[in-house]
């Protein structure tokens, strides 16, 4: 399996499934007469980030992960989304961006150094495979699972099959 095949499909699977989960969340709000901004601002615990930020971070980790692993320019996307539609649009743009990477861009990326910020004044350097398995994927999945958990906690009828997406 190529490094591209280990990276890109994994990001795409969850980005796509979250699009479907947000569609269900939007329908849930309509059916239950819940203001969408209430669900978008929901958290699992007061010190955790809200649903909107969880989706934004999922997108950031996928896009920045691909960029860093291919030594491409790391995109910067402002966090301006305030609706389900805008979040689904951000997911769609991220999906398109991730799909734009070609297998050859990842060649040797598993063994190349990846330097990335880990705070306002610090960076860390890991080999590509280690960056993917110890930083990028864990953060990506953490925020995706948290978004799923927020939806489920608030009564949106989503389950494991929704999280895993279409196979």
Automatic annotation (TrEMBL):
Lineage of the organism: Bacteria, Pseudomonadati, Pseudomonadota, Alphaproteobacteria, Hyphomicrobiales
Name of the protein: DUF1993 domain-containing protein
InterPro entries: DinB/YfiT-like, DUF1993
One Pfam family linked to the record: DUF1993
């Amino acid at each position: 399996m190529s490094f591209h095949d280990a990276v890109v499909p994994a990001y795409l699977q969850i980005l796509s499934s979250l699009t479907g989960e947000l569609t269900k969340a939007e329908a849930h709000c309509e059916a239950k007469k819940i203001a969408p901004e209430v669900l978008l601002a929901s958290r699992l615990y007061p010190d955790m980030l809200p649903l909107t930020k969880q989706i934004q971070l999922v997108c950031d980790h996928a896009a920045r992960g691909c960029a860093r692993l291919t030594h491409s320019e790391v995109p910067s996307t402002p966090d301006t989304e305030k609706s389900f539609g805008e979040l689904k649009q951000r997911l769609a743009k991220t999906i398109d961006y991730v799909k734009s990477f070609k297998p050859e861009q990842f060649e040797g990326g598993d063994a190349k150094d990846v330097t990335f910020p880990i705070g306002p004044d610090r960076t860390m350097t890991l080999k590509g495979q280690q960056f993917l398995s110890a930083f990028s994927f864990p953060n990506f999945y953490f925020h995706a699972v948290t978004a799923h958990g927020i939806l489920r906690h608030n009564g949106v009828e989503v389950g494991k099959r929704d999280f895993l997406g279409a196979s």
